[in-house]
C-alpha cells in the first residue's frame, strides 16, 4: 500500500477571532445578539486570512477581482506547503510522478498546478490533476487518487489543498447562515507526499488502507457553495449535523470491517471540524471520548475551518502532538464532510 511520508502546511498571518468581530464583523452583521453568540460559540480563537479586513473590505468586490487576488496569493502558500512536505519526505520536486491540486475558492487557467510546476521546477513529464469545487471533503478523494497512482505506477505523488475563503466575504447581512460562514472559515494550504510501499516494506509515516464515501442527494440543499457576481456564497443549514448523524457510524463501521477492525480498535480520529456541532455529532454517534476529537477542536480553535486543507491539519496535529498515543501498527480514521451531502472517510495505519 502507498503511504504518506511528508506533511506540509502554510498559512497567512493570524488574526484573533475577537478582533475580527470587534473590528469588522460586528458592523458587517448588524451587531445583533444572534450574530455575537454565533461568533462566540464557533470554537474559533484565531484565524489566518490573506485579506486584512481592517485595511480592505472585499465584500463588494466582483468575482473577477477576487480571482485575481487568488491567483496572486495562492501560489506562494501552495509552494511553501508542498516544499515543506517534500522536505519532510526527503524528496525533491523532480521525484514526483503526479501532482494533484485541490481548491474550491479560486480558479484560473493556467492554474495553481502550473504555478507550482514553475516555482518548484517540476519535471516536464509530471502529471497534473486539478480538483475543484468539491468543498471540505476534497482532500480525502484527492488522497485516494495520489495513493492509487503511487501504487499503480511505483512513483511518489503529491496532494496540495489551497483554500482562501477570506476572499469570499459576502455583502453585509444578518442572515444566520452567512454569519456562521463568516465566523468559521479561514485560509490555509496543506500538502502531503505519498510514496509506494508494500506489505513487506510499507512506506514510513501513514499507510493508506482504504477510502469510503457516502452521499445523500436528498440532503443536497443543506450545504451549497454557489458562484455569484460577488464571490462564492456559502449556504449552510443548521440541519447539517443531524443529516450527517445517520451516516457516520455505518460508513465508518463498514470501512473498518473490511480490515477486521472496529471503532474501539481505532487509536486516532482526524475529524474535519466543520464546526462544534459537527464534532459533537461524530463523537456521539461513534461513542468516542472527548479526547478523541481534541485534535480537531485544537485545529478549529487555532485555524478555523480551512475547507479541504483542514483534515490534513488535523492529521498533522495527531502526528505532532499525540505521537505517543498512536503507535506503529495502530489505526487512524480521517473523515470530512461537504456538499452533496457527502461524507468521505479514510483508514490509515501508522508505520513509523
TrEMBL record:
Residues the record marks as active site: 136 (acyl-thioester intermediate)
**What CDD domains does this protein map onto?**
CHS_like
Q: Which domain of life is it from?
A: Bacteria
Q: Domain Chalcone/stilbene synthase C-terminal: where?
A: 218-349
The UniProt entry's GO biological process terms, in alphabetical order, are:
polyketide biosynthetic process
- Entry's Gene Ontology molecular function annotations: acyltransferase activity, transferring groups other than amino-acyl groups
Against InterPro entries, the record matches this protein to:
Chalcone/stilbene_synt_C, Chalcone/stilbene_synt_N, Polyketide_synthase_type-III, Thiolase-like
This protein's UniProt keywords: Transferase
- Protein biosynthesis found in the keyword field: no
**Domain spans labelled Chalcone/stilbene synthase N-terminal:** 3-194
Give the matching Pfam families.
Answer: Chal_sti_synt_C (PF02797), Chal_sti_synt_N (PF00195)
Transferase found in the keyword field: yes
What does the similarity note say? Belongs to the thiolase-like superfamily. Chalcone/stilbene synthases family.
Which PANTHER family is this protein grouped with? HYDROXYMETHYLGLUTARYL-COA SYNTHASE (PTHR11877), TYPE III POLYKETIDE SYNTHASE A (PTHR11877:SF46)
Give the protein name, as stated in the record: Predicted naringenin-chalcone synthase
Which organism does this sequence originate in? Actinokineospora terrae
Amino acid at each position: 500500500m502507498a503511504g504518506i511520508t511528508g506533511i506540509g502546511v502554510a498559512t497567512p498571518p493570524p488574526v484573533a477571532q475577537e478582533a475580527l468581530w470587534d473590528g469588522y464583523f460586528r458592523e458587517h452583521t448588524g451587531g445583533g445578539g444572534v450574530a455575537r453568540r454565533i461568533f462566540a460559540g464557533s470554537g474559533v480563537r484565531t484565524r489566518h486570512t490573506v485579506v486584512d479586513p481592517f485595511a480592505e473590505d472585499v465584500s463588494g468586490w466582483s468575482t473577477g477581482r477576487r480571482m485575481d487576488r487568488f491567483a496572486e496569493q495562492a501560489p506562494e502558500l501552495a509552494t511553501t506547503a508542498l516544499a515543506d512536505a517534500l522536505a519532510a519526505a526527503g524528496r525533491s520536486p523532480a521525484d514526483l510522478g503526479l501532482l494533484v491540486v485541490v481548491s474550491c475558492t479560486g480558479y484560473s487557467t493556467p492554474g495553481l498546478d502550473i504555478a507550482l510546476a514553475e516555482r518548484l521546477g517540476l519535471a516536464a513529464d509530471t502529471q497534473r490533476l486539478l480538483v475543484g469545487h468539491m468543498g471540505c471533503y476534497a482532500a480525502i478523494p484527492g488522497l485516494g487518487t495520489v495513493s492509487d497512482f503511487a501504487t499503480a505506477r511505483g512513483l511518489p505523488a503529491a496532494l496540495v489543498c489551497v483554500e482562501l475563503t477570506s476572499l469570499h466575504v459576502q455583502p453585509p447581512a444578518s442572515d444566520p447562515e452567512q454569519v456562521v460562514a463568516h465566523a468559521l472559515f479561514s485560509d490555509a494550504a496543506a500538502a502531503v507526499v505519498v510514496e509506494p510501499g508494500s506489505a513487506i516494506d510499507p512506506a514510513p509515516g501513514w499507510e493508506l488502507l482504504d477510502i469510503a464515501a457516502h452521499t445523500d442527494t436528498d440532503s443536497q440543499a443543506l450545504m451549497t457553495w454557489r458562484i455569484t457576481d460577488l464571490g462564492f456564497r456559502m449556504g449552510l443549514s443548521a440541519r447539517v449535523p443531524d443529516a450527517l448523524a445517520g451516516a457516520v457510524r455505518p460508513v465508518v463501521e463498514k470501512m473498518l470491517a473490511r480490515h477486521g477492525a472496529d471503532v474501539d480498535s481505532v487509536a486516532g480520529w482526524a475529524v474535519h471540524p466543520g464546526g462544534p456541532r459537527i464534532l459533537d455529532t461524530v463523537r456521539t454517534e461513534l461513542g468516542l471520548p472527548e479526547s478523541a476529537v481534541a485534535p480537531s477542536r485544537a485545529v478549529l480553535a487555532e485555524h478555523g475551518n480551512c475547507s479541504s486543507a483542514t483534515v490534513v491539519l488535523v492529521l498533522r496535529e495527531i502526528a505532532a502532538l499525540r505521537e505517543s498515543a498512536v503507535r506503529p501498527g495502530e489505526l487512524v480514521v480521517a473523515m470530512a464532510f461537504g456538499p452533496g451531502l457527502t461524507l468521505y472517510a479514510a483508514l490509515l495505519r501508522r508505520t513509523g
